[in-house]
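ARCHIVE CARD
SHELF: 3
SLOT: left
DATA:
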Amino acid sequence: MELLTKQPTMKLPAQWFTGDAWADVIHRGEEPSRARANAVRFAPGARAACHSDGLGQTPCIVEGVALIQPRGGESLQAHPGDVIWTPPGEEHWHGAAPDHFMTHIAPWETDEADWLEHVGDDEYAAPRTSTRR
């Protein structure tokens, strides 16, 4: 067993995020492991640019209210305890609702991602379906 040293919080780059977002590394496996996990915190209104993940992504919402939308699909409002699967290559974005901070735990296996355009205010403000029905 080994107690791992906590890495400093990283401010995420403006080229990939609108608004303020930060990440804390939870785990970054060493070869042959590909396991990785970050806690990602979004300020109200902050969101990732549209992107796709090489092996998919499974954010688990742990705090606040998240907005997640696949390209051309329905926008989803997710809450703590919700786990959302985005399959490999699916273009999508995710971020915080305009009036709540949001934190998700994001496990993944590769740094392979295609970063696309930023999400405009109209797309961000589109009607959404809540996971709390």
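SLOT: right
DATA:
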Amino acid sequence: MRTIGAVTVTAVLVSAFWIFFYNIRTAPGATDGRVAPAGDKGRVEAGAGNVTVAEGVVVGPSGLAIPVAGVSAQELVDTFTQARAGGARVHDAIDIMAAEGTPVVAAAAGTVEKLFNSKGGGGITAYVRSPDGQWIYYYAHLQRYAPGLAEGQKIERGAPIGFVGYTGNANPAGPHLHFAIHRMAPGEAWHEGSPINPYPLLAGKAVSR
């Protein structure tokens, strides 16, 4: 009994530490914005063991997790239609601002299809394809990947992808996650697809005008 008690106390203390460390919170007003404890849990390496980060994952009304730990729906900004490259192209994604090194987690379950460093573009990037093959979730400007992340790996919603950074063509003064969703036609490769706006799916609000 003494051993069981010690293990329980240790688990509680470790969980409390990581919740404090990542400033984890759920969306204000949400009855339960977190991933169910028995369901989708992400993990990060912590010393000799693994620590769940599910408590820091806020789930939007669509069932997608906000892919930056600790960010609420109220903090999201719709940048999908903003101009980029001096007006030469449209953003086709949203930027989620956060401190450098903040954990980036999977918005949805899928398979890591491509890990790619586009030095003049998205920098350190990850492309995750949904189990049905119809969607690609794109994470860019990462500082680095989560330990052990590999192509071909199956991951759950809330699983660690990497950490917020500013690699590629991002401004070092504004570290952020560039997050995009592409609808994939049969046979399309990881870098193809048609972009859709992630903002209403994550924030539960109409798109900005």
